[in-house]
Amino acid sequence: MVSRRGFMAGLAGAAMLPRVLGDSRAWAAAPSAPLVLNAAETTLTLPGCQRPTTLWTYGDAWPAEIRLKRGEMAHLLLRNQLKDHTAIHWHGLRVPHAMDGVPYVTQDPVKHGEEFMYSFAPPDPGTFFFHPHCNTVEALGRGLAGALIVEDPREDGLFDLDRTLVVKDWRVAGDGSYLSFMTDRGAARAGTFGTRRSVNGATAPVITAPPGARVRLRLLNVDTSRIMTLGAAGAPVSIVATDGNACPPFTLDGWRLGPAMRADLALVMPVRPGSRVEIRDTWGQEPFPLAVLVAEGSPGTADRRALALPKAELPRPDLKTAEFLTLSLQAGVSDPALDSWLKENRFGDDALCRAERLFWAINNKAWPAMDMDKRPPPLAELTPGRSYVVEIANHTQHPHPIHLHGHTFQVLSSSRGPIRAHWADTVLVAPDERVRIAFVAGQPGDWMLHCHIIEHQETGMMGYIRVG
User: Fold this and answer.
1) What is the pLDDT along the chain (468 residues), one digit of tens a residue?
2) Are 85 and 167 within one domain?
């Protein structure tokens, strides 16, 4: 484990005064200084609650947000002030394997009172997020997550307004106390849903923007279970990036955003003062507002560039020479020997990373534990730099957002009919659907692959691919 003292000594002579997460703009202005992320408790009164709820956060507010520069080295120091051990996974970032933040796989867990320095230069611009990868259903349930924005100079001046919208449900009662984060019924089905919905920890924000202004909204679904269907009213709204990766703009309406997925939205505000634009989750009987934009103030920019981001620069798989692999998502697969072992080994530091139930599997393998002695074989063994096409077949009655660590892949096709090809790190696979993705195998190491409905992940729908 890299200590703060050792890290500082290795950078003697550099201006390394630590900064505590709070003002992301100050951090962006001084990338050589380590940013301190204090994993600790704070309080917030959530929508519909009469009393504050105790949250786990990476700073003194929720949600945390970090802004980095593409290609510039960043040093982020995790200080764990929580009672449980933890780590940080940088979801969607193609970071070095040792920085991927998976306890017992890429690093030792960071225990109470300990520190760990994450150092990497983000290679890709876009909208990402960060969260722990152990006891995730409780940690995310208590709010331990943040938005990570990687800025690209090629996008300077393209938008007049750039706002981040972090969407999350909370399992809390009216008095602010937590309900059970995980239930057998939810874990075995579509997940245990929250009782309070929020955007940035509150009700849907009302955002004022000049008439005619060019607006970018970075929408992150950090919920543990909820799948959203996006819609808009009041003006045309386009998606310009999927999971942070630039794409040719397309109409927002009907795009599904599962847990851990992101969408960057772009629009031009109406020119009539007082006009309103609403971004919604249209799933269910009543649309849920995610943001309301109101045209107000002096007219916006006269910029006439297309509302499109610079093309994503990612390793492109060679589909003609790619090796073909299959992954089968399954329900009801259980290993009696592992079931018995889990019941007998419920204590100790690594017990935080275990579930007591097995409901799901990938390729007949269930892995609810991160400890090394019960790790199953890899789902596949890949060669660095080689292209792969993977068919993910969902043989269950519920959708699964499947996330692959350390890689960005192309979503190519679906058995349900034509789809919009796009780049992603998390793909939503519907019941009885077969989705094909393609990617170039990256750095050597064991890279996690799992469902991001966290109860599914923690009850068996998790594995890893081995590169190297």
Assistant:
1) 333 333 333 333 334 446 666 544 444 545 567 999 999 999 999 999 999 999 999 998 899 999 999 999 999 999 999 999 999 999 999 999 999 999 999 999 999 999 999 999 999 999 999 999 989 999 999 999 999 999 999 999 899 999 999 999 999 999 999 999 999 999 999 999 999 999 999 999 999 999 999 999 999 999 999 999 999 999 999 999 999 999 999 999 999 999 999 999 999 999 999 999 999 999 988 999 999 999 999 886 767 788 999 999 999 999 999 999 999 999 975 555 555 545 554 444 444 455 567 899 999 888 865 444 567 889 999 999 999 999 999 999 999 999 999 999 999 999 999 999 999 999 999 999 999 999 999 999 999 999 999 999 999 999 999 999
2) no
For residue 269, give the nearest of 303, 229, 241 by alpha carbon. Answer: 303
Clarify whether residues 66 and 189 are in a common domain: no
For residues 387 and 321, the answer to whether their CB atoms sit within 8 Å is yes
Q: What is the CATH number of the domain that holds 232?
A: 2.60.40.420
Say if 306 falls within a structural domain: no
Phi, psi of 153 (to 5 degrees): -55, -25
Task: Give residue 213's Cα distance to chain centre.
Answer: 28
How many CB atoms neighbour CB 152 within 10 A? 17
Of 133, 152, 171, the one marking the end of a domain is 152
As a whole number of Å, the end-to-end CA separation of the chain is 23
CB-count burial class (<10 Å; 0-12, 13-18, 19+) for 282: middle
- Largest Cα–Cα separation, the chain: 68
Query: Residue 397: inside a domain, yes or no?
Result: yes
Residue type (1 letter), 103:
P
Judgement on whether residues 284 and 376 belong to the same structural domain of the protein: no
| Same domain flag for 358 and 454 | yes
Q: What is the C-alpha separation between 124 and 68, in angstroms, rounded? A: 11
> Vertex 207, ends 204 and 209: CA angle to 5°?
160
Distance CA 259, CA 221 (A): 5
* CB-based contact 63:24 (threshold 8 Å): no
SS3 148: strand
DSSP string, 425-444: SEEEE-TT-EEEEEEE--SS
**Domain count of the chain?**
3
Dist CA 17 CA 3 (whole Å): 15
- Backbone angles phi and psi of 330, in degrees to 5: -130, 155
Q: How far apart are CA 225 and CA 55, in angstroms?
A: 18
400-404 and 426-429 beta bridge pairing? antiparallel
418 plus 278 within the same structural domain: no
Phi-psi region of 432 (alpha: psi -120 to 50; beta: other; left: phi over 0): left
Question: How far, in Å, CA of 265 to CA of 228, rounded?
Answer: 15
